[in-house]
Write a structure and sequence with these properties.
The chain is of the alpha/beta class. It is built from 3 helices and 15 strands. It has a 6-stranded mixed sheet with strand order 3-6-9-12-14-15. The protein has a 5-stranded parallel sheet with strand order 1-4-7-10-13. Strands 2-5-8-11 form a 4-stranded parallel sheet, with no helix packed on it. The protein binds coenzyme A. The site of coenzyme A has 15 residues, from β14 and β15.
Length: about 170
């Protein structure tokens, strides 16, 4: 938990007291705590800690509009730019150095359809973008503001629009 958090904090730049008021940092701490608690196997203790982590995540959801369940897998170096309207499906699997913006949803494709995205390393998701369904997003990908991505995206691509299409491939 602490090595992940250390890498996450680095993404916010040099430490200043202002960072204590960053809602993204609050959400990251509670998410990392919840993920850590989910690995606990001690019978009663794990139940108590899971209930506490769930309670904290609900407080974060209500106060910041950021909902990232503890079951989501996110690599180190996670950055939440600002806050509000950020929802990640419990089944999403995300790599290292992930950056997410306000209004981003990573969810299922439709009611009754399960499965959420697998996202590679070094992915940036612009404000308002939606990543829907059981799709794969490669490494080093940028997803433009307000895009709706419903198909796989290869490595090193920039995607924009509805439905999302590739405008650049490096
Ligand atoms: C997708 C993005 C990363 C691409 O940046 P870039 O590589 O500098 O791309 P460009 O600005 O050169 O744009 C390339 C083309 O894509 C189009 N485009 C760029 N972003 C777009 C978007 N979000 N939706 C639709 N089209 C977009 C441009 O109009 C341009 O089209 P043209 O070649 O026909 O003129 C960027 O435009 C973006 O959407 N960033 C999100 C920023 C954000 O969310 N900021 C808020 C943070 S809180």
């Amino acid at each position: 938990m602490f090595s992940n958090l250390k890498a996450d904090f680095k993404r916010y730049g040099k430490f200043t007291p202002y960072l204590l008021f960053e809602q993204g940092i609050w959400a990251t701490i509670v998410f990392r705590f919840g993920s850590w608690v989910h690995t606990f196997k001690v019978p009663i203790l794990s139940l108590v800690l899971k209930a506490f982590a769930f309670f904290l995540s609900k407080i974060i959801e209500i106060t910041t509009g950021i909902s990232i369940p503890a079951s989501v897998k996110i690599g180190k170096g996670f950055y939440i730019g600002h806050f509000g309207g950020i929802i990640v499906n419990p089944h999403a699997v995300i790599g290292e150095n992930f950056s997410i913006s306000p209004g981003v949803i990573i969810g299922t494709r439709a009611l009754g359809r399960t499965g959420a995205a697998r996202i590679g390393d070094n992915v940036y998701v612009g404000v308002g973008a939606k990543i829907l369904g059981d799709i794969t997003i490669g490494n080093n990908v940028r997803i433009g503001a307000n895009s709706v991505v419903i198909k796989d995206v290869p490595d090193d691509a920039t995607v924009v629009g509805i439905p999302g299409y590739i405008i650049k491939k490096v």
